[in-house]
């Protein structure tokens, strides 16, 4: 999603799209060109939008549990309060029924509603500004094809002063420009796959929204790239997607990345938490070529310069002894004494970037609450991990997670009791 789209570019894309359909029809009909109807073109645009909506996991924020798809109401906990995803169906009163394609483009690209009101950046328009006009129009066509839902939008429940919407203008003055940060002219030496991967990662897939560090006002530190970040309000950690060998994707192959996105499991790690949902509802439905393109782009990113010294604070001998005892009692049967696991059933803990992450939240979550990778076409019956939060106290959890973070050549910091308590509270 990295090709800058100006109106001239949109026109060229439209011409190219019509030409492609024309040529496909010409070949299919034995050399006699088949006419392309407006109805066919509109249907193709809707289907394209359906695919893009899945790839971007729009349902993840705009569909409440048990509710109608895209009717809104899903809660998003943040340090600033709770945001609720709005209704995206074509209901004229509560949804997008009175919106135009231009209105939708303005929301994605400029973060503004039709009447000019500023949207909170909980809606990831800092990433969606990279979406092309053609893809925005396809998304809008798909949303307009949905059955209307007369479901009223739930007001956000924000803390003061964040409930003062006019402050969004101040935030934008410091941290947002409608123009993309990427160069208008892509590097000539880059492949088509790399360009496509960059476009997807930095745009519709909005990977930076979770995997990029943020400041106290919620603005992404774009200079840090995809260097990993704690997902505040949820106590999950999105690991680096950079080339760091220990905590990022440096030791992963392109195929490892594709397999994780497509199936939820790989020989390196299993998806859990918010990433499992993104795969369940989004990435598993993506075309292999798009997943491969994302992998090509991610593998091109340099290491983020992780401070290994900060990650290597050792646990005491007593903590390691207690943690090792608990690991052998509860964990080794599946994850093995050497931490290599039994892929695809049980993931490795040795060399696992979620285990060695700068923040231990993910490993603590799994010990406390257990969980499953997503059920996907490539892994329809995933093996799960039972919860141990009821039988292990905070001190025990800190010990066993410290043990796995400092065994089998893993070099990550020990886990403190406050870190365990914070995640336990968030998991309730």
TrEMBL record:
Cofactor note: Binds 3 heme c groups covalently per subunit.
Membrane-traversing stretches: 7-26
UniProt-annotated binding residues for heme c 3: 331, 334-335
Residues reported to bind heme c 1: 58, 61-62
Keywords noted in UniProt: Heme, Iron, Membrane, Metal-binding, Transmembrane, Transmembrane helix
Cofactor: heme c
SUPFAM superfamilies: Cytochrome c
Ranges in a coiled coil: none
GO molecular function, one term: oxidoreductase activity, acting on CH-OH group of donors
Any Gene Ontology CC annotation: membrane
Gene3D superfamilies: Cytochrome c-like domain (1.10.760.10)
Pfam family, one: Cytochrom_C
Residues engaged in binding heme c 2: 207, 210-211
Record-given protein name: Alcohol dehydrogenase cytochrome c subunit
Lineage summary: Bacteria, Pseudomonadati, Pseudomonadota, Betaproteobacteria, Burkholderiales
């Amino acid at each position: 999603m990295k090709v800058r789209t100006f109106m001239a570019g949109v026109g060229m894309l439209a011409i190219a799209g019509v030409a492609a359909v024309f040529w496909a029809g010409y070949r299919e009909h034995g050399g006699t060109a088949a006419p392309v109807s407006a109805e066919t073109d509109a249907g193709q645009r809707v289907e394209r939008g359906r695919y893009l909506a899945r790839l971007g996991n729009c349902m993840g924020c705009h569909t409440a549990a048990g509710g109608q798809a895209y009717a809104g109401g899903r809660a998003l906990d943040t340090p600033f309060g709770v945001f609720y995803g709005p209704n995206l169906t074509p209901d004229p009163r509560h949804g997008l029924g009175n919106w135009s394609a231009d209105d939708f483009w303005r929301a994605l690209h400029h973060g503004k509603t039709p009447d000019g009101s500023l949207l909170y950046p909980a809606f990831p328009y800092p990433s969606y500004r990279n979406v092309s006009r053609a893809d925005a129009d396809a998304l809008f066509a798909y949303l307009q094809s949905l059955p209307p839902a007369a479901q009223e939008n739930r007001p956000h429940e924000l803390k003061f002063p964040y409930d003062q919407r006019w402050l969004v203008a101040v935030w934008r003055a410091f941290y947002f420009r409608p123009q993309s940060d990427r160069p208008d002219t892509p590097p000539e030496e880059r492949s088509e796959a790399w360009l496509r991967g960059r476009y997807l990662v930095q745009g519709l897939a909005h990977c930076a929204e979770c995997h990029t560090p943020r400041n106290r006002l919620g603005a992404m530190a774009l200079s840090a790239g995809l260097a990993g970040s704690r997902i505040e309000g949820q106590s999950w950690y999105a690991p680096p997607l950079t080339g760091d060998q220990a905590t990022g994707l440096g030791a992963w192959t392109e195929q490892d990345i594709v397999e994780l996105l497509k199936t939820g499991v790989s020989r390196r790690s299993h998806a859990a938490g918010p990433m499992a949902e993104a795969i369940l509802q989004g990435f598993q439905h993506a075309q292999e070529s798009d997943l491969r393109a994302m992998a090509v782009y991610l593998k091109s990113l340099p290491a983020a310069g992780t401070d290994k010294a900060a990650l290597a604070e050792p646990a005491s001998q007593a903590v390691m002894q207690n943690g090792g005892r608990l690991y052998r009692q509860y964990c080794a049967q599946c994850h093995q004494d050497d931490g290599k696991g039994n892929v695809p059933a049980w993931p490795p803990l040795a060399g696992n970037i979620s285990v060695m992450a700068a923040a231990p939240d993910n490993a603590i979550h799994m010990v406390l609450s257990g969980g499953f990778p997503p059920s996907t076409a490539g892994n329809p019956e995933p093996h799960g991990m039972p919860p141990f939060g009821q039988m292990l106290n905070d001190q025990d959890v800190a010990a066993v997670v410290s043990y796995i973070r400092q065994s089998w050549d893993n070099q990550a910091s020990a886990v403190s009791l406050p870190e365990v308590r914070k995640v336990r509270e968030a998991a309730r």
